[in-house]
Amino acid sequence: MSGKRFLGDAYADTSADETRALYDAWSEVYDTELVTENAYAQPQRCAAALAAAAPNHDVAVLDIGCGTGLSGLALRAAGFSVLAGCDLSPGMMLRAMATGVYSRLFETDLNAPPMPVADGSFGAATAVGVFTFGHVRADALDEILRVLRPGAPLIIGLNEKYYAEGSLTRRMAALSEAGQLDILSREKGEHIPGTGVEGWVLTMRKSWQIT
Known about the structure:
By secondary structure, this protein is an alpha/beta fold. It has one domain (about 5-205): Vaccinia Virus protein VP39 (Rossmann fold, 3-Layer(aba) Sandwich), CATH 3.40.50. Helices cover about 35% and strands about 20% of the residues. It has helices at about 15-25, 30-35, 40-55, 70-75, 90-100, 140-145, 160-165, 165-175, and strands at about 60-65, 85, 105, 125-130, 155-160, 180-190, 195-205. The protein has a 7-stranded mixed beta sheet, with helices on both faces. The radius of gyration is 16 Å and the shape is globular.
């Protein structure tokens, strides 16, 4: 296994091709760097939030930015069994496939919609570590809502620095004002404890009646 670590490079402002290449290279050591060395907490926090927001654990869940499958494994442990995942990086998705928890995996660039998914395909979604510097822009939230059914819960986990930057929370507020999104809760806590960075878990729901 390579001795190189990539977390320090993850928030650079790069093109989609550069980001894809970074994560393809990172896939070999991603779990070691994030979990073993830095106690990555957000997958479990977000899975617990979805379990609270979606009492029906048979719902089809889309794990957005699934990476190597850490979030999918946390979702399975929380009782969800119908899981699909998407990511920009084929290398990451090969690792996710090896977990055996996903019924479908597909490559997508959330900054260049649409996803190859029909409207209203999923009854819930998570996006763990997806919205951040140099990665997915806040307006991708609109595309995520497109593939969710009315009333579907959406859990977003992000680091405290990107939360404070404000672009995502501003987009959430605009969608809420437009009657498309219900913001249910915001909880600050552990993100990547080994780096000293905290994060937020945002629980929301696609509105039942889109105006």
